[in-house]
Amino acid sequence: MLAAQRKTLILTTLRTDGRVVAKDLAAELGLSEDTIRRDLRELAADGLLHRVHGGALPASPAVADFTARTAIGTGAKAEVARTAAALIRPGQTVVLDGGTTARELARQLPPDLRATVITHSPTIAVELATHPTVEVIIVGGRLFKHSVVAAGAVAHEAIGRVSADVFYLGVTGIHPTAGLTTGDADEAAIKRAWSERSAETYVLGSGEKIGAASAFEVVPLAAVTAVITDSGADPRGVAELRAAGVEVVS
């Protein structure tokens, strides 16, 4: 079997099974594990999958830069944002993560909502600048341009002085075994810090993120209150999350 054929089979297996186990695929094809691992490395280098111990998982499309992500799953993100906005109560202190779904959530907040929103995202702050009754607090730091959020030691120190009712967390991957992941270690640390300073954490998880994985864990699935997804999310992926003990809201 040619390399191109093997790679097509690997990607097809990822779509149908949600994972590839190198040992099993090598045995099925009568090839060495080294051959399959080489194919996985090359596909990972092209951003087509995420390598894990023993095989691979689907790569998240949400690792693209902020501008590119604005065109991904816009309807699904709006649905997730509406569900999330309905959970916010007057008087709460709410942390909004950066990202395109969180920006949509900011747009969906009721015009009469009285609450405090804390964010390390300039784009979120700008969205809420004209909201008449939401107080906005911005956490600063080094600008991580990929996601247009503050990161680094300054941001981390400021977060450590905050206590919030609820954190709306954005991630690039939501997987029943890999957990909640994102593509940058520093950004993962900031997200983790927000979750630790919040009484509840809801994950903004539009369907393209479910079943996918990225390189850096944010928090374990057990650490969050629920995953909010859209009605078009893959039923198998949602069922696997629920089987892992995760509450999924849609």
TrEMBL record:
<dbReference type="InterPro" id="IPR036388">
    <property type="entry name" value="WH-like_DNA-bd_sf"/>
</dbReference>
<dbReference type="InterPro" id="IPR037171">
    <property type="entry name" value="NagB/RpiA_transferase-like"/>
</dbReference>
<keyword id="KW-0678">Repressor</keyword>
<dbReference type="Pfam" id="PF00455">
    <property type="entry name" value="DeoRC"/>
</dbReference>
<dbReference type="Pfam" id="PF08220">
    <property type="entry name" value="HTH_DeoR"/>
</dbReference>
<dbReference type="GO" id="GO:0003677">
    <property type="term" value="F:DNA binding"/>
</dbReference>
<feature type="domain" description="HTH deoR-type">
    <location>
        <begin position="3"/>
        <end position="58"/>
    </location>
</feature>
<dbReference type="InterPro" id="IPR014036">
    <property type="entry name" value="DeoR-like_C"/>
</dbReference>
<dbReference type="InterPro" id="IPR050313">
    <property type="entry name" value="Carb_Metab_HTH_regulators"/>
</dbReference>
<comment type="function">
    <text>Repressor of the lactose catabolism operon. Galactose-6-phosphate is the inducer.</text>
</comment>
<keyword id="KW-0804">Transcription</keyword>
<keyword id="KW-0238">DNA-binding</keyword>
<protein>
    <recommendedName>
        <fullName>Lactose phosphotransferase system repressor</fullName>
    </recommendedName>
</protein>
<dbReference type="InterPro" id="IPR018356">
    <property type="entry name" value="Tscrpt_reg_HTH_DeoR_CS"/>
</dbReference>
<dbReference type="InterPro" id="IPR001034">
    <property type="entry name" value="DeoR_HTH"/>
</dbReference>
<keyword id="KW-0805">Transcription regulation</keyword>
<dbReference type="InterPro" id="IPR036390">
    <property type="entry name" value="WH_DNA-bd_sf"/>
</dbReference>
